Amino acid sequence: MPPSKTEPVLIIGAGVFGLSTAHKLATSGYTDITVLEKDDRIPSRFSGGYDLNKIIRSEYIDPFYTQHALNAIRQWQTNPLYQPYFRQVGFLNVVTGEANEVVRNALAKYNKSVAENPAFDGYLVPCPDADHIRRVAPQFTGALPGWKGYLNGLAGYAQSSNAMGACFKACEQLGVKFKLGADGDVAELLYQPGTKVCVGARTKSGAVYKASRTIIAAGGFVANVLPSIAEQVTAICWGVSHIQLTPEESEQMRGMPVTTVRDIGFFFEPDPATHKVKICYMGGGYTHTAQNNGKSIPYNSLAESAYIPAEDVKQTRRMLRMAVPHIAERPLIDTHLCWVADTDNSDYIIDFVPESDSSLVVLSGDSGHGFKMMPIFGDFVQDLLDANTQKLARWRWREVKRDAAGTGKQISWRASAIVDLDSTPRAKL
């Protein structure tokens, strides 16, 4: 039986999943929603969504996620809350001449998945060589050695921090309450004595928030709040950096498709407001297991995550030299690690915590492909609450065993294996 909409709901985390859930519940008539956030501002700088931009695409080998991504894109195109932050510049999905067979095969599968889906009719442009790529991305002045792939026009990017800020303001207007900083930094969940029935949370300021339903949406920090989920998810990160352009240089690159070079990384057109180009070395991601009993946990402070590994600098410059060599050696600025909660099969976890009598919900496992779902993610949570069970087996809580926080393993759709941060040198910028 779904909860009464007047009963208190507590959401831990004001990132993408938390904000989307709060907005959906508020628009569905829930009248007592409180969101706790450890940062002292929103958009939260601890959220993986705190960024200039995020790719909005529907390339999945699994048609289940393709359909959800298409539904999300329709919302990005039309929903007044999100549409102002969406740029449908297309998604250029390519490999270089140095890509290995695993990466080439992955690209072929992505191409096949969209080519066979009628939703993409008229949106796909084959790019079998550098000349064809330049036709869809004339901003590229580099040699593009061995580059090939395709352009998907039904895709682009969203200005992610701006979209999160808009959702936050909409939630406030709907009466959602937000507690920030020490008042929103959860120290412990509260339970009925002798049970696993959650009745709320206590924060580091000592404040207590009681709730009939507590929803954890803590991103990469989820295991700090709910240690029992650590076997299912691993906190991993990627390094993000930026290059500052002049307004004139920015205008010359305007309209460039979001470009993913599957064996290296990805980059975006310059941000219209700041004229910064965001770049990311994709790799397999990084863990942080030091002093964490083998479990990967993000750094506690924002300052500790304000760097990127040296390998990221090497690979991003290599990628830029191939495509836009005139900016490839520019200073890399605003570097930071972007943390997410990763599952071994890239499925989300949207479920009640076992033995909690439906009092405790966890939203996790974004696995680096959660932001695009922001306009519809709250729907997934609403469905769970209405049904009082997770009908989709793939999104259920799973009893699994992971070893060494996944270090050394490779997720099928990524270009390389996971590496621990302690084993890779930091960039000196």
UniProtKB/TrEMBL annotation:
Gene3D superfamilies: D-Amino Acid Oxidase, subunit A, domain 2, FAD/NAD(P)-binding domain. Signal peptide: none annotated. Residues 9-383 form the FAD dependent oxidoreductase domain. Its cofactor is FAD. This is Sarcosine oxidase. One of its GO terms (molecular function) is sarcosine oxidase activity. The keyword Flavoprotein applies. Keywords: FAD, Flavoprotein, Oxidoreductase. Belongs to the MSOX/MTOX family. Pfam families: DAO.
